[in-house]
């Protein structure tokens, strides 16, 4: 039986109190394996404790500690390392103990032949490799199962949250619409009720739009429509719109594109870029109680970078990598703190991919976050 070159990675420990046997074994198999030799069980244990041994081969009859005792020790301390016992015809009891107590892969009667021992070694290593691969697959399945269960849990919580978010504006619409039926309410109250109904309707429409948007993105039912347009005009439009949104808050929204050519025309999908930046600004407002938000842009050669900076609560370091994922723990925590469906960053990320953009974030707890959209223009 011919062993492949990949077998060279294996470390084999051979223990025998006869130096001549050790020399013959090492000379025979050193081209196929990394051979470690020991003249006693005590020396063999030291090698076991200091090297990553894949297979132990031990002679049975040795002073101080027998081969079975050594293999039993190795089984208890290193159960994944396979074991082979070398013994004579008369050592039946030793063979039984090796099988029952040391769980040897096989015993080999002396004197051994190179061909038969090489086949047994190859079989032992392949069995060990299969067992290790089985363990890796079991661990991978366990992780996948846990991930799927966590995803299902987060999706279930999302559905409950969705129900709550829809009912809130619906209750506002139904409740205040019924109050409008009262002929005795004065003009100012009527105007106030209508305003609440309008706001509730807008909130409900945003929820529906988010659900439709993420559904289309997930199912790839989207078309990218590139066009040329003035980036400054788009940013000014967003600045004006979101200034209205925060007019009654303690926030300030700045637009900073002084270094950017006011007549600069870019080519991409304007609607998707608008959606990305709207969601980033919405996210910044949601997590910034006071201070300021800055919308800015720079051009570096063929690259345009658009930034949304805030002085908000920041993002924990362990959530940075998952903040853009749908149904992530980070997304769930954010939703619990601020309300809403928590799909904004997922929508922004998916749209960024569609227009060949890259969305990144830097953040520090208590200091705020900076989201950066990078667009390549050629």
From TrEMBL:
Domain Response regulatory: 11-125
InterPro entries linked: CheY-like_superfamily, HATPase_C_sf, HATPase_dom, His_kinase_dom, HisK_dim/P_dom, HisK_dim/P_sf, Sig_transdc_His_kin-like_C, Sig_transdc_resp-reg_receiver
Keywords: Coiled coil, Kinase, Phosphoprotein, Transferase
Short name of any one Pfam family annotated for the protein: HisKA
GO molecular function, one term: kinase activity
Ranges in coiled-coil conformation: 127-154
Enzyme class, first EC level, given as a word: transferase
Annotated Histidine kinase domain residues: 161-378
SMART domains per the UniProt record, alphabetical: HATPase_c, HisKA, REC
PROSITE patterns, A to Z: HIS_KIN (PS50109), RESPONSE_REGULATORY (PS50110)
Catalysed reactions, semicolon-separated: ATP + protein L-histidine = ADP + protein N-phospho-L-histidine
UniProt key word Kinase: yes
EC number(s) reported in the record: 2.7.13.3
Residues where 4-aspartylphosphate is found: 59
Protein name, entry field: histidine kinase
Organism: Carboxylicivirga linearis
């Amino acid at each position: 039986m011919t062993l492949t070159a990949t077998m060279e990675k294996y470390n084999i420990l051979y223990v025998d109190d006869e130096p001549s046997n050790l020399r013959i074994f090492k000379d025979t198999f050193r081209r196929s394996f990394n051979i470690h030799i020991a003249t006693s069980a005590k020396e063999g244990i030291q090698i076991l404790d200091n090297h990553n041994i894949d297979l132990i081969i031990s002679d049975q009859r040795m002073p101080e500690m027998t081969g079975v005792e050594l293999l039993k020790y190795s089984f208890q301390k290193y159960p994944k390392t396979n074991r082979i016992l070398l013994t004579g015809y008369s050592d039946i009891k030793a063979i039984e103990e090796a099988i029952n107590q040391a769980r040897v892969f096989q015993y080999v009667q002396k004197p051994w032949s190179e061909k038969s021992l090489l086949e047994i070694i190859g079989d032992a290593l392949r069995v060990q490799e299969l067992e290790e691969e089985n363990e890796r697959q079991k661990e991978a399945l366990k992780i996948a199962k846990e991930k799927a269960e966590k995803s299902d849990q987060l999706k279930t919580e999302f559905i409950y949250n969705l129900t709550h978010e829809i009912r809130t504006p619906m209750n506002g619409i139904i409740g205040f619409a019924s109050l409008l039926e009262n002929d005795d309410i004065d003009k100012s109250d009527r105007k106030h009720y209508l305003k609440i109904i309008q706001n509730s309707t807008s909130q409900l429409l945003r929820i529906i739009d988010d659900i439709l948007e993420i559904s289309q993105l997930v199912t790839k039912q989207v078309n990218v429509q590139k066009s040329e347009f003035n980036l400054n005009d788009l940013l000014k439009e967003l600045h004006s719109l979101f200034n209205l949104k925060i007019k009654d808050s303690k926030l300030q929204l700045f637009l900073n594109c002084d270094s950017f050519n006011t007549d600069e025309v870019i080519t991409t999908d304007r609607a998707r870029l608008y959606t990305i930046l709207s969601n980033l600004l919405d996210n910044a407002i949601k997590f910034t109680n006071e201070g300021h938000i800055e919308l800015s842009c720079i051009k570096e050669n063929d690259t345009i970078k658009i930034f949304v900076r805030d002085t908000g609560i920041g993002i924990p370091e362990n959530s940075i990598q998952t903040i853009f994922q749908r149904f992530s723990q980070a997304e769930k925590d954010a939703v619990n703190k601020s309300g809403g469906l928590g799909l904004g960053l997922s929508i922004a990320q998916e749209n960024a991919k569609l227009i060949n953009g890259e969305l990144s974030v830097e953040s520090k707890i208590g200091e705020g976050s900076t989201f950066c959209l990078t667009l390549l223009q050629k």
